[in-house]
User: Fold this.
Amino acid sequence: MTDAAKRKLTVNGVDLAYLEQGAGPLVLLCHGWPELSYSWRRQIPALAAAGYRVVAPDMRGYGDSSAPAAVEAYSIFDLVGDMVALVGALGEGEAIVVGHDWGANVAWHCALFRPDLFKAVAALSVPFPGRGRAPPLEILRRKGLDTFYWLYFQPPGQAEAEFEHDVSRTMRAAFYGRGVSLLMQPGKGFLDEARIPDAPPGWLREEDIAHYVAIFRRTGFRGGLNWYRNLDRNWALTAPWQDARIAPPSLFVAGSRDAVITGPIGEARLSEMDQSLADLRGKLIIEGAGHWIQQERAHEVNAALLEFLKDL
Assistant:
């Protein structure tokens, strides 16, 4: 990734820092939580070498990009608005959008809201959520899922205090800790049950961890957590798109061991996703892979993305 240029633009009222490499059709790469544009370090050169202009921003609230103080500044309209404005500021009239984790949710909604601008969408790990019949946090409580991590993330300051106490342990626990569950133990923190192996997995180097740790020690975690604090607000904002289908060509990739697609919400969304995607070109579940799919199984993810892009 040494050839990727680091740049920054002011768009949609915030500064967005981004990595850029290559020339050709624009491909935007949207990272998730708790990640950075750095998470695409194995995709950027591969896509650029294949003839694409690749841009991977630090999303709003992360890294070298702006992190507005107000919780309300992280709604899905703001996050998609950033990507819409970024395409224009880059001098382009259309783009292909790829997202992982929370970035997948942004990518899905880019294609839903602006199919004229985002001509195709690929999402990793998080199926298209659709819009339920009630606010998502209310649905969790109705189902008795009061310890689901979304609810733990709601009170400002609570999760921040846990994650910022020891950022190195937080990043190691998030990326390769064992025992971390989306359904938390009552009275426990999100990472309290994490058991961290002596060495990171082969796909994650100590220098990679050090990069994340240095950035999050500086920025803290509030920006990314504020995305979760807009879950019910996003439900209200997207009322006009109830039961809407995503029209542009789409691709979904996830790992078979990813708790997001095997948990109480993700499993249902995975099975229902086909109904919401008008032109689903592929649903690839990579056997044995976990959540950090583009870092963990870069070769398979790159191959799937390039095949998808080639057919557009």
